[in-house]
Amino acid sequence: MRVLRLTESAYENGVILGRQHKVEIRFVMESETNPENWAEVVRKRGDYKTANRLSSLTRKDLLNCAKKIHEDSMKAGVNSSKYPLLKDYHCYLDEEYKGMATASGVSFEDILLFKYFVPVYSKFHNMKDEDMDSARCTTVIFPRTPVGPIIGRNTDVSTLYKTVLEDQMSPVLYKQPSSRGYSYVSTCHPSTNEKGLVVFGSSIGYPNEPDIDTNLRIDWYDFVLRNCSTTKEAVDLLLEYLPFWGPCNLAVVDAQGTAAVIEKSKRRAYVHWDDGTGIATTDGVAVGDETAALLDTASEGYRFHLRRHEKLAELIEEKKSRQRPESMWEIISSHSPDSPICKHEEALPKFYKLTSMMSMVLIPKEMRYEIAVWNEDAAPCEQIPWEYSYLI
Predict the structure, then answer these.
(1) CA gap 333, 227 in Å, rounded
(2) Main-chain phi, psi angles of 215, to 5 degrees
């Protein structure tokens, strides 16, 4: 198990994180930030107009866009009396990114593009929800079982991410100094902290909602796991700092078995509290009145995602009398033909071309998880998962 001993210095922490994420940074720089690769993806969907526009871009255009987002973020005024945890946060990020550049061997501008990849991608794609080709994910929670909460997770990305996921599948402890809050463990990405709180997110876009006024964005995984010990604390904190994170669907569960899903648009949030039997969220769909009202619920894409959400509810109900790790594997490996939970690219509609590249079942009370990562010979659902344990 790798241990990253973080400090109170933003630059030093950036150096530590740059070394840890060197493979991912290099991958994003070489593959994900190539405009011609973007053009090829949308060309395969038959959108030649967008493909031609993307082909006209240069990498310099992307770097300049990321630099502008960062500069706007640095200028963003934050009322530190209202948002005390964000006091000097923008300065901290600037120094951290400089350290990451030093350690990973790329330029500061490259790190900015790595950190602001999603908004840059969205801007140049004029992105609608159906067009999103970045990460899509599903999270399922059995909150109260004899072994504590059981969390199932599918990470849905391009098969190009194989190298990154293989590099990150073993546990990493982010050991925090006491002044920065709780330490937490990454299981492919930050997942659970020393108090047993677990958070996972899923992608969703709200193209019809006006952009929010602030350009400052927090890393909500790190923000929640360092500052919260229970689901209620996490929900309260995220609602208090609403302008600075999302959009996404965020699933949270604590060691006591209290679970919730927050559907977060740019400006709104809907909280769905679990009744103790199980809860799930997935990408591309919102079911709260306020959040669903912002989406085109009659569109092909929304209905595709809604069917998957409804299937998850059916499967949770079906498994409620036997909520065990193997039951969770059955849910996240489901291949419902109208909108599968375990996604194989060849079986998906034209507008959705991602794959369930990583599947995982996490049992935080036992400090262990089972994980499988896609390879050329077998999807995660076809493998015997690896098992890892960790200590915090």
Answers:
(1) 33
(2) -100, -5
Under DSSP, is residue 262 helix (H, G, I), strand (E, B) or coil? strand
Residue 385's nearest CA partner among 375, 376, 373 is: 373
Count the alpha carbons within 13 Å of 50 in the hemisphere toward its beta carbon.
20
If DSSP codes are grouped into helix, strand and coil, which group holds residue 128?
coil
Domain boundaries defined on the chain: 2-125, 132-389
Tokens describing residue 255 = 């060691």
Average pLDDT rounded to a whole number, residues 276-304? 93
Phi, psi of 265 (to 5 degrees): -90, -165
Higher pLDDT, 373 or 126: 373
CB atoms closer than 10 angstroms to residue 75: 10
Q: How far apart are CA 256 and CA 278, in angstroms?
A: 14
The secondary structure of residue 364, as a DSSP letter, is G
Report the distance separating Cα 335 and Cα 379, nearest Å. Answer: 12
**How far apart are the two ends of the chain, measured CA to CA in Å?**
11
Nearby residues of 139 by Cβ (< 8 Å), 6 or more positions away: 151, 152, 153, 200, 201, 202, 251, 280, 281, 282
What percent of the chain clears pLDDT 70, i.e. is strictly above it? Answer: 95
Instruction: Tell me: pLDDT of 236 over 80.
Output: yes
Residue with tokens 């526009």: 53
Global pTM reads 0.91
Is the pLDDT assigned to residue 128 strictly greater than 60? no
Q: Residues 216-230: pLDDT tens digits? A: 888 899 999 999 999
Q: Would you state the pLDDT for residue 372?
A: 94
**What gap in Å lies between CA 35 and CA 125, rounded to an integer?**
10
The three-state secondary structure class of 373 is strand
Q: From the options 2.30.30.40, 2.60.260.20, 3.60.60.10, 3.40.630.30, give the CATH code of 132-389.
A: 3.60.60.10
Residue type at position 18: G
Q: Which value, in Å, is the radius of gyration of the alpha carbons in the chain?
A: 20
* Pair 265, 185: CB distance under 8 Å: no
Q: What is the mean pLDDT of residues 335-341?
A: 90
CA distance 50 to 392: 47
> Up-side HSE of residue 56: CA atoms within 13 Å toward CB?
8
Q: Residue 247, preceding bond cis, omega within 30 degrees?
A: yes
